[in-house]
Design a protein that fits this description.
The chain is α/β, with parallel strands linked by helices. It is built from 12 helices and 24 strands. It folds into 3 domains: 123 residues, Rhodanese-like domain (Oxidized Rhodanese, domain 1, 3-Layer(aba) Sandwich), CATH 3.40.250.10; 161 residues, Protein tyrosine phosphatase superfamily (Protein-Tyrosine Phosphatase, Chain A); 135 residues, Tumour Suppressor Smad4. Strands 1-7-6-2-4-5 form a 6-stranded mixed sheet. Helix 3 links the parallel strand 6 and strand 7. Helix 7 packs across helix 8 and helix 8 packs across helix 9. The longest helix has 15 residues.
Length: 449
């Protein structure tokens, strides 16, 4: 069922979290208007329905990270925009409604001109440019929730008119190079359930309130605030929820629900959540939230999760299958892997796995001494964070083991428990750590039976 949407929903398509489905954006204007003038939304296809009403065709000849094809809209959120007063009975909207296989169908009816006036930074004339990534709008045009990359991206700060960046992180001073007209409010805080985030609530809330309500000169845009931590999951999410509670006198549960609608990966740790529930009393909020709604991820729970992850099948054959291959005449390989550990432009270490990884082996990376082959000390790293495996053909895989803060390969967050082929030149990041693991060498060696 199609529904009318506003600028906020359109913006949200460009502020999705790493596991959210990518929206399909359809421009139903004439192709000349799509390609000329001020252009079109990033990643938009220019489409129309055939005369017989049986097919939806693309006239943009765009080359994004996915190509136009029959059924490309299946199970995707779809946004349709174009001329002013666009209605639900437009042929494209009618076609998709009857087809019934979109995840959602939003219609922006105010016209491309109005949308461009509201969100000029989302328009381009390119049919190849990748869509930018923006932080979640917790309060549209005022308060945004994001990660370290958003705070370090001058384009994001400029496009959203960010005038204050609130950083809550282990090393907030590492955020350097902010524009001169952007103020910085840094706090040192680890993402641990035992940390006290409550003392920050009033300080941050008052500063954010002052910033977004600051009187500006005629014709000038009012400033906005970006709240971020490392991954934009726990610490900054707690501060964003506290601000909504302060501003709207709502419960922690209500604030959490609203933040999750904008940033689906937001999840304060259990200790931060209990402090948000306590904050209801300080604010005189009517109603109480369940302080146990978010379960503690203590050491025992993480160990159990790591043990459960270890039971999951690795990419490639099992130990029994490897044994069956031995002596069968089938060639088997081990893989020597070498990575350079980089911090900015500086190499701070090297990881060499030699002897190599054989089929059935698991090379685990994580925070727990003794059970991980490679130990990482950053507080955002899970006890058993990720693993490297190989198959009998000598293909190496990296798999996130359901970590709290994720595994990033070449700028994209990978799904938990979904092995991804590892190749030379790839760059891996774990959690909110700023260290990069650059794959320099994967050497395949035949193993004698």
């Amino acid at each position: 069922m199609a529904k009318y949407i506003g600028e906020e929903e359109v913006y949200q398509a460009f502020a999705r979290s790493r596991y959210d489905p990518e929206s399909l954006i359809l421009d139903v204007r004439d192709v000349k208007k799509y390609a000329g003038g001020h252009g079109h939304l990033y990643n938009a296809f220019c489409v129309r329905v055939t005369n017989n009403g049986r097919a939806l065709l693309d006239y943009s000849k765009a080359h994004y990270n996915f190509k136009w094809s029959e059924g490309v809209w299946w199970d995707k959120p779809v946004i349709v925009y174009g001329p002013e007063n666009l209605k639900k009975d437009h042929p494209v909207v009618t076609f998709l409604s009857k087809d019934g296989r979109t995840r959602s169908l939003g219609v922006y009816r105010e016209g491309a001109g109005a949308l461009r006036d509201a969100l000029p930074f989302l328009f381009t004339t390119s049919t190849k440019a990748a869509a930018p990534s923006y932080p979640a709008a917790i309060v549209q045009d005022a308060v945004y929730l994001g990660d370290w990359e958003h705070a370090a991206d001058e384009r994001v700060l400029r496009d959203l008119n960010i005038t204050l960046v609130v950083t809550v992180h282990n090393d907030p001073k590492n955020l350097r190079g902010l524009p001169k007209d952007v103020a910085h409010l840094p706090f040192v805080l680890a993402d641990l359930e035992t940390e006290r985030i409550r003392p920050l609530f009033d300080v941050v809330n008052e500063r954010v309130h002052d910033e977004v309500n600051r009187v500006v000169g005629k014709g000038k845009r009012r400033g906005a605030v970006l709240i971020h931590c490392g991954a934009g999951v726990s610490r900054s999410a707690a501060l964003a929820m506290a601000y909504l509670m302060y501003r709207d006198k709502c419960t922690a549960a209500s604030a959490r629900e609203r933040v999750l609608r904008r940033r689906t990966i937001a999840e304060p740790n259990a200790g931060f959540w209990r402090q948000l529930c306590e904050y209801e009393i300080d604010l005189g909020v009517h109603g109480r939230s369940d302080p146990n709604a978010i379960k503690s991820k203590n050491a025992a729970a993480e160990t159990a999760a790591a043990e459960e992850a270890a039971k999951a099948p690795a990419a490639g054959p099992s130990f029994n299958e490897v044994a069956a291959l031995a002596g069968s005449g089938v060639r088997r390989y081990e893989c020597v892997v070498e990575m350079h550990i980089m911090k900015g432009e500086e190499r701070v270490g090297k990881l060499v796995i030699e002897p190599g990884i054989q089929p059935g082996d698991r090379y685990v990376l994580g925070r727990e001494q003794g059970s991980c082959e490679h130990v990482m000390e950053h507080l955002s790293i899970s006890r058993a964070h990720a693993q490297l495996t190989s198959d009998a053909k000598g293909v190496v895989y990296v798999t996130d083991l359901g970590s709290s803060h994720g595994t990033n390969v070449d700028g994209a967050w990978v799904r938990a428990h979904a092995p991804k082929v590892l190749r030379e030149g790839m760059v891996l990041r774990f959690g909110a750590s700023t260290r990069e693991y650059v794959v320099k060498r994967i050497e395949k060696r035949e193993v004698s039976s």
